[in-house]
Amino acid sequence: MNNVAHIPSYLSAEHLGPWETFLVQIDRVEPHLSAELRPLTPLLTRPMRALIVNVPIRLDDGEMAHFEGYRVQHNLARGPGKGGIRFHPDVTLAEVMALSAWMTVKNAVVNVPFGGAKGGVRVDPKQLSLAELERLTRRYTSEIHILLGQDKDIPAPDINTNEQVMAWMMDTYSMNEGRTSMGVVTGKPISLGGSLGRKDATGRGVFVSTVEAAKRLGMDINGARVAVQGFGNVGEAAARLFAEAGARVVALQDSSGAIANPSGLDVHAAKAWRQQQGRLSGAPGAETIDADRFWSVEADILVAAAMENQITPAVAERIHARILVEGANGPTTPEADLILQERGITVIPDVLANAGGVTVSYFEWVQDISAFFWTEDEINARLDRIMREAFTAVWDAARAKGIPLRTAAFVLGCERVLLAHKVRGLYP
Ligand SMILES: NC(=O)C1=CN([C@@H]2O[C@H](COP(=O)(O)OP(=O)(O)OC[C@H]3O[C@@H](n4cnc5c(N)ncnc54)[C@H](OP(=O)(O)O)[C@@H]3O)[C@@H](O)[C@H]2O)C=CC1
Ligand SMILES: O=C(O)CCC(=O)C(=O)O
Question: Domain Glutamate/phenylalanine/leucine/valine/L-tryptophan dehydrogenase C-terminal spans what residues (predicted)?
């Protein structure tokens, strides 16, 4: 069956966006699923639940503003919903559906006991004051309250949301419940039941999975040239960890533009500059380059840690790197994926490469529920082990079957999800 042919009635064909990418990925993986589980594939091509909410807030000047928000639970077969909350002007239902579906696959790839969910509000948070952002977060949390709970659906940070936003979400949920619920949100501040290691966890997972790939490809991380798109939670931590391991970070990009230095950038100085100026471009010790030139920079490893659909066919033709690591969700279009494959570029797919964040979110949830907290060394050691094991399982399956890492990761994740459905049994 061609899953792309299946479009839910609430999405128009023109507005499929990243959901179409997900459906193409499912089309590509379906022939490789076991004969026993393949007939259940349609369960993955429809989200289980999608809630659309209006988020009205009073702005500081007394005017009312309305924002559209979403929480989608794609699949709950393996456990409560888990996935981040995005505040961005381009958020759509189709995007949140895709992000929730990638969470389903990702959570299964690293075998954490969660289903897939994701949420978002179509808003440019850079235009809001801190007080407006807090009102928006609290109202959105109240509107999606009916879906939330530590055993139902557990949000976390994503683009433009951080520890403070998670603290407001946890507080709003707790106020509405009349009790303090630590485990309802992860990525919280340490002072509020957050976990050591969560802040860097996604970047750390990106780093660990790249080290594993480099080992198998005979590439030394020490001295390797690395370019990173996105310098937020994921990209900054990844760039820092690569630099600490002796790699040369030769280019960085945020939404303001790109900076490059073939001899290596000072990641700490770039971070300090961005904190002061609110942008990367113009950072000292680097050449500010055209955003499009970023993709042609001579690098061995390219980390995409910004948004979806960044690696288009035109970009895929120009990439120099031997390894593309998807720190972001859905950065590569399905057409570009085929070009990268033909060009022999190893793509470490999002559902594996960026799974470090949700893995430490799982640790945070376990710590909150058991009210017993671990050391950072324990957390990092457990994270590294889970990432290495997941990478090895995906790499070995890809080599054994002669398929790309993305397809192998999807086979692993989708089969775990479909097996849960099969064992639970479908309603007659
Ligand atoms: N946070 C997490 O734990 C996880 C995040 N991810 C994924 O990683 C990606 C990044 O998330 P996260 O780091 O949390 O988000 P942040 O909001 O912390 O950072 C996003 C970064 O991407 C940059 N960016 C946005 N749009 C563009 C663009 N068009 N071109 C270049 N750079 C751009 C932003 O620049 P600027 O600040 O200038 O706007 C910022 O530097 C997303 O795809 C997210 O879904 C995946 C797993 C877990
Ligand atoms: O930490 C989490 O629960 C989810 C993080 C996330 O949104 C993602 O992995 O894309």
Answer: 195-425
Give ipTM to 2 decimals: 0.99
Q: How high is the pLDDT of residue 427?
A: 64
Mention every residue, 6+ apart, whose C-beta is less than 8 A from residue 129.
60
**Fold agreement between 47-179 and 199-353:** yes
Residue nearest to atom 8 of ligand 1 (CA): 328
Q: How do residues 304-351 score in pLDDT, each as one tens digit?
A: 999 999 999 999 999 999 999 999 999 999 999 999 999 999 999 999
Q: How do residues 104-149 score in pLDDT, each as one tens digit?
A: 999 999 999 999 999 999 999 999 999 999 999 999 999 999 999 9
Give me the architecture of the 47-179 domain, per CATH. 3-Layer(aba) Sandwich (3.40)
In the chain, where the domains are located: 47-179, 199-353
Please tell me whether 126 is known to bind a ligand.
no
What is the number of the ligand 1 atom nearest to the C-alpha of 327?
8
Interhelix angle 376-401/356-370, rounded to 10 degrees, is 140
| Residue in 22, 87, 208, 233 to alter for ligand 1 test, most ligand atoms within 8 A of Cβ | 233
pTM over 0.90: yes
**192 Cα: distance to centroid of ligand 1 (angstroms):** 24
Helical axes 334-342 vs 18-29, angle rounded to 10° = 50
The number of residues in the chain equals 428
**Architecture in CATH for domain 199-353:** 3-Layer(aba) Sandwich (3.40)
Q: Is 271 a catalytic residue?
A: no
Burial class (CB in 10 A: 0-12, 13-18, 19+), 420: middle
Q: Nearest ligand to the C-alpha of residue 354? A: 1
